[in-house]
Amino acid sequence: MGNTDSKLRFRKAVIQLTTSTQPVEATDDAFWDQFWADTATSIQDVFTLVPAAEIRAVREESPSNLATLCYKAVEKLVQGAESGCPSEKEKQIALNCCRLLSRILPYIFEDPDWRGFFWSTVPGNEEGGGGGGGDDDDDDSRPLAESLLLAIADLLFCPDFTVQSHKKSGPDSAEDMQSLDSCEYIWEAGVGFAQSPPLNYVHDINRMELLKLLLTCFSEAMYLAPSSDKNILNPWVTFFCSTDNRHALPLFTSLLNVVCAYDPVGYGIPYNHLLFSDHREQLVEQAAQVLIVTLDHDGGVATRVCVCPDNLFVNYLSRIHREEDFHFVLKGLARLLSNPLVQTYLPNSSKRIQFHQELLVLFWKLCDFNKKFLFYVLKSSDVLDILVPILYYLNDARADQSRVGLMHIGVFILLLLSGERNFGVRLNKPYALRVPMDVPVFTGTHADLLIVIFHKIITGGHQRLQPLFDCLLTVIVNVSPYLKSLSMVAASKLLHLLEAFSTTWFLFSAVQNHHLVFFLLEVFNNIIQYQFDGNFNLVYSIIRKRNVFHQLANLPSDPFSIQKALQRKKKSPSAVSRTSSQEGVSMEGSRPAIPAEPGTLKTSLAATPGIENLTEKSQVSEDGTMVALQEAHPSQPPPDHSAIAGASDTETRLSSASSAACWSPTSEWVLSWKSKLPLQTIMRLLQVLVPQVEKICIDKGLTDESEILKFLQHGTLVGLLPVPHPILIRKYQASAGTGMWFRTYMWGVVYLRNVDPPIWYDTDVKLFEIQRI
Description:
Protein HID1; Hid-1/Ecm30
């Protein structure tokens, strides 16, 4: 009954605040204390009892009352941070203020006139500045935002509230918050900390509430329209991750360790997650979200060097270097990402986590900011423990329009990894896992799995994935010089893609479509020149499909043929037909990729930069080192402008349909790139091997392909092929465009994942649009 009374009192206070036409004095503690001192309201209650319409009404009609409410709530948090919340009542007040501010802040951010409010100083304020850096004079003139952020940081290391006290309990043994060394109170063992404190679910819940408020503070970014200006930094994140926050290092370490140490399997007891509520999972999720948001500080390539030291979280992440720390982080991320793939004999016996998108962004940030970590990931087969889950997610999400962002982040990670030689080498490891995936059964390597799934995405995904085709094929081009032996299934998939992309109607229907053919020809050339001996399956597939290469060499370029091809396009169902690709039987236990349920919410994304803006070209020299290329190399697919004359802005990657509306192919345009098709190596291979294969078939009366494969396996083309071309690698390169893409994607994920309570729902978000499928 008491709980109902306190909700009633809280609701009365809200009504009083929203209906009062006169400003309520800041000194009227009896009035303001109704919001936090005498209530036991959960965060869900606060969201119900403080409706959006009423917050907006106070903002417009009684702005001074809203300002005082915010100021008083921050003041209470600062007092709690200074005293250490020794009593239960003080702990409850701190949590109530947290919940109230989490509710109100988005409505402050959505109004441009209010956005500067938290960055102003409150005249004659009495609050201190929390236990952060700086002396008292500074504290008196601190902007409200800084006082709030420092109080949250202090409270995240508050003994008996969010961390285990190191002192014996008793009224005289309360720890002094100002002298407390929070590095001794890191939440979990792992990077830079050896002790694992006992699990305490009350501490976990309190940390969660504070992290939720912190995330809400950082979310001002959602209310600013997308901008490619790399100098725009989030002031909340910038201050929180600066030297003003004395807890920056232990908090960064706590967040990273809590995420990477989490094991959702249920400590070895099947169905454990059905018996107990797992508060740690919610904390891990919130920690991952706070981490990726604080690390959104790259400012683009131009300012990367000078920006990092300003953001201590980025600085600490980039300085992790011990092998045991890398091992802990990589194993933790791989364990969590592999969670949906863990097959047990008891269905649903282990818990399935939902925060894989946050984990992928975190992995991306680790590789992007810490090159030593990237090299550690690639120096052993451990990288495959990250690759297989990513391929699983890509395959699972390919038909679901609400998961386009997941598709992009997965492909971007593989693009980043494929720029390193070791990734291609690791792909030769046999694939023995039998994770149920909706792809044909095959026996082969991880490279085969990658190619088969990429083929599935291109032929069986939805239309909005077309801008990713360049990226998918670039990954295959990058690894192709190192692939020792493709399976027959993977080889036939590559040939099917070439067949589909080299039809005249597809080549002529959009200004950039011929790039896909160039990429595939480069894959075949790399394998023939550098890995011929083990790739008899691919050579056999090329011989079988030799007509495709002859047709490309004799591609018509006269206006009549171009028009005829385009008329054929109107009758064709889709860009890449699934027919003529023998799909084979899918793996046992797999389910097909399914579209999103109607009504599913999704957030819009910034435009994906074109592959020429996503990558920079490097040439591999004879000793294996890479040299960046300034000029386009003749053997590479032309983003050179002679080949894409007439292209509009490639940055926005116009889809086939829209580019066709404002552009039409000409004979000159076709000839400009047809003359550069790198067909010499393949034509020479066909010229030498086709007569030999035909002769064997006639002489021995062969109809069995295994005999032909045996012949090809022992054949050689030494001295018969053109001089090997240099290996070209297209390495991922950060830009303002990719920075903006990651920001919109990351905040879109945070927006959609925080539904209980729905912190930002129905507020005027500007960074992206919220759409229904």
